[in-house]
Structures are given as C-alpha cells and as structure tokens.
User: Fold this.
Amino acid sequence: MTTNKALGSSAKKDSRPRYVVALEQARAMMGQSGLVAFDRATLLVGVFNDAQWRAKLDNLDDFGLAEILDEYLCDLCLRFHDLRRLLEFYPRRSQWASGKLADMYDEMIEAGIKVPEREAKRTRQTATLAELKALIAEKQDLQQRVKTAENLRGRVEELEMELELARKQIAQLERENVALRARLAENLELLA
Assistant:
C-alpha cells in the first residue's frame, strides 16, 4: 500500500509542469550552498530555458525572467544571471563542493567573464502607427495578389482543359473530313 501511495504522489508531481516542480525544489534548497547550490542553479537554468514557463509569463524578456528567479537566490547573495554565468564557468558539480561561491565568482570575474547588465537589454523593435498601417496595407495587397494569382491559376487550368478538348475535337473533325473527302472522291468517280 505504501508503494501505491508513493507511486500516486510521484504521478501527481509528474502531471504538473516541470518548471513548477523545479521551482518548488529550488525553494526547498534555499539556505544551502555548495553542491546544493549547483543543483539549485541547474534547476533554475532549466526553468529559465523552459518554453512553457516563458509562455506563461507572456514571453517576458531575459532580464524580467531573471528578476523572477532572483527570489530563489536571495540567501546566496547572487542574482540569477550571476549564478547562470557561474554555472557556465564551473559546469561540473564537483567544482562546487567547496561551497565558496564568493571565491568562485571572483575567479570568474578575474577570468574576464562578464555578467549581463540590465542596460545591455535587447531593444524592442517598435513601429509608428503610420508604419504599422503601411505594413497592414502591404499585407492586404499581397494577400489580394495571392488570391488573384490563385484565381488566374485556376482559369489557366480551365483554359488548358478547354484547349485539350478543342484539340481532340479538331482531330476528330480532321478524321471525319478525310473520310468525307474519300467518299466524295468515290461519288465523283461513280458520276464520271
């Protein structure tokens, strides 16, 4: 019976989105450093890259997402982007065994690894209302052209079928004409 309960509880966890489970695990790891900090960093980077989580947050930019994940790191005195770069610089779990994140961070900075700053945020492309209207008009024009081309393609196919039918009729008429000329020639010979 305990096996069934364990299976039932793990099935419940499996039915939830991965990011929900990962965030719960990351919260449970707060207050611990060293190898557990590595595990937490790995979980949070996985959440950061999770398309379902990003979609739930209306595809917020990387800095906005990082700010949300920062709340899972307040005990480490690191921001998410710092921890992510640290994980990239020290990718093996064994490298985190000392638990001295401040020393690891200093080594990373001395090695020239930069942590993205909020000001380095990607700029969002914007358009004026006039540009938007022009793009919409261009799209509608292109859609109309496509529709016209499709109609013309259909008409060309119809005309090709009519042409093929006309060619068959011409061939039939030419055969009948040959037969009629032959009969006419026979009748003229009989009359002569």
